[in-house]
Amino acid sequence: MPLIGRRTLLRSFGAGLALAPFRAAAAEGPLFATAFVAGASHGIAILDRDGKVLRRLPLPGRGHDVCQGRGWLVAFARRPGAFALAIDPAGTREPVAFSAPPGRHFYGHGVFTPEGLLAATENDYEAARGALGLYDPSDGFARVGEWSTHGIGPHDLALMPGGRRLVVANGGMDTHPDYGREVLNLATMEPSVVFLDAADGALLERHVLPPAWSRQSTRHMDLLPDGSVFVGCQWQGAAAACPPLLLRFRLGEGHAALPLGDAERAFAGYVGSVAANPARGTVALTSPHGDVAAVVDGASGELLHFETQTDVCGVAADGAGFVRSTGTGAFGPARHAGLAFDNHILPLRAHD
């Protein structure tokens, strides 16, 4: 995959990105960021809880997720894209475009470490290994190192409560840009969830799924304040053999399955996004393949809510509940003709 230069990236984003702060045009209340597709163009949007679009920013290709930290928003390309764009919500700094190095691509997710570095999940696709690329926002997001994820196909990651540990979902799927999104190792997949020291990347714990679940790709996650990590999976096997799609991990305890009962089959073996709501201790999960969304109790796993919604995927905590988005242009109560919202929604913090 060719390396995209910073100047080329910035030209493709167009002029005028360093404009007024996002909150200048916003009503009171929370704001959200999400990637979108509009015809042949791509970008990220800033919206309020009513689904009003406050700002649209272009991307050179399809985005996946957005993370926030150190005064920046960072949008990542969808796998196997290699571009990322850092934007200052305060509008005081020019945007910074950067790329994964040659032989790597992003998986679409990142998080800021307590030391101030951006850790991004990457595929070292020639070596078939996962890595966290480390980028320094104080030096134009220059890549300053990497940590191993001790697995293949690292996708989502999160900083644990207290800020001392990272958790990473290694989906286990070996892919290569020359083969698109084809899985090259179905017979030998080894999905896992790992806990790393957030200061130096040292491996603390590695939890591999049972052999019978080897095709249960661990993908997206969110956390509750007690340290419970909720991971939504994507099954790569026969539909009739699909294990529970929602798993809970705790440091020192391994994993527990949270079966969805009769609703499990409706997810069509695919969880597209997961969001935890600390105000209620609940967890939402969505499936654009099954056109369904559900909410479970984080402690008991009890299914609290289930409904159908066409092409639903993005979900984020909003007060005591959740806001969702779809590939057909729905965001909360609003409908946007010509917009397709991508997989994830980031609730924006007023201060980070």
Can you walk me through this structure?
- Mean pLDDT is 92; it is low at 1-5 and 12-20.
- The chain contains one helix and 29 strands.
- The strands form eight sheets. Strands 1, 2, 3, 28 and 29 form a five-stranded antiparallel sheet that branches. A four-stranded antiparallel sheet has the order 4-5-6-7.
- The radius of gyration is 19 Å and the shape is globular.
- It starts with 5 loop residues before the first helix and ends in a 5-residue tail after the last strand.
- A hairpin with a 5-residue loop joins β14 (192-197) and β15 (203-208).
- The chain has a domain at 1-90 and 320-352.
- It has 352 residues and is an all-beta fold.
- Helices cover 2% and strands 48% of the residues.
- It has one helix at residues 6-13; strands at residues 31-38, 41-48, 53-59, 63-69, 72-77, 83-87, 96-99, 104-112, 118-124, 129-136, 142-148, 154-159, 165-170, 192-197, 203-208, 216-223, 229-235, 246-250, 254-257, 273-277, 282-287, 292-297, 303-308, 312-318, 321-326, 330-331, 334-335, 340-341, 346-347.
